[in-house]
Specification:
alpha/beta
Amino acid sequence: MNESRLIHDWNVAEFDTLAWGRHVELDDETLRDGLQSPSVTDPPIGAKIRLVHIMSELGIHAADIGLPAAGPRAVRDVIRLCEEVRDSGLALSVNCAARTVVADIEPIVGIAQRTGVPIEVAAFIGSSPIRRYAEDWTLERMLRTAEAAVSFAVREDLPVMFVTEDTTRADPDTLEALYGNAIRWGARRICLSDTVGHATPSGVRSLVRFVKRAIIDPSGANVKLDWHGHRDRGLGLANALAAIEAGADRIHGTALGIGERVGNVEMDLLLVNLALAGVHDGDLHLLSDYCELVARECRVPLTANYPVLGADAFRTATGVHAAAVIKAQAKGADWLADRVYSGVPASMVGRRQAIDVGPMSGISNVNHWLAAQGYEADRRLCRRIFDVAKRRDRTLTDAEMHRIVDDFVAGSVA
């Protein structure tokens, strides 16, 4: 079987590869921006430690582990996470958020000195005209405070990522002033933020290309560019892929997309898409653990229809769909069965195709379920289950299926 001839890929029809199919770094914001969601619970330190281990194993490159200026608990957790990353030798660099205020950066400096971990300072400041108007900020004042903050971190030998909030609604002159000066002050990474989820993919491409062409390239410095997106319009993941296409070096995201308001780019789905494009080599079998840990400890739902990781992602009770999967399995080709009705192969994330029985099912669903459970095929039993399913308004549970079988067997014996 020539696998490449079984799927015609329009995604690469115009180019030899996906337009966004290039290697990038990933920065996990679950433990900072993710915890800013008003509906989540800040998990205990044990869960956070487990999470950074999973991040490292998934091939995520960096993690924002908190905002120490938020208070004593945040400081304690950041210290412990730095110690864990250091002592366990995790392949994960760390950063911490701070306003462009020296007082916010001082605790980060103290933690870095105490643990010996070179924490990247993610110093952020608003940039859009609407934010400046609401805050009564002048550009001159913003530049003064930003210079003091960035220069302080640089003098303390900490790497600096200079972040503008609401970048996608900021004007070019303001961005040139803020980013251009930040680079001169010593920032070696700048971050563009779609703080309120305003951007569309075309807007993201325009912004990234402008910043690279008009600000980074003329500086002559080795400066990396990050993208931090939100999903208020449901465009978070699409925008992240557009940022990669336009040349971003690192993309931010969170587990299950948790975060401020409706959240951030879904790190788990970003990983899947990069892996499908052949540009992420991490083992994604731990993605379920990653999402389930965050769902459980942060107390956010992992809904059944969540892509790839939800309970229904590789599950069908529809007759036509199930029949195709069953026929593919009958050909003895696991590769085929895992793709004939799936855009993402279940095996990539350590899962399997599942066929259930419900009112939309065909008799092949029933036969398959019985065989999978080790029951002998019996025409009368199949018809009994089929008739029950057709009278229901939902898919039968395994417990209900077993009960029908048990009742049938008991009746036959009697």
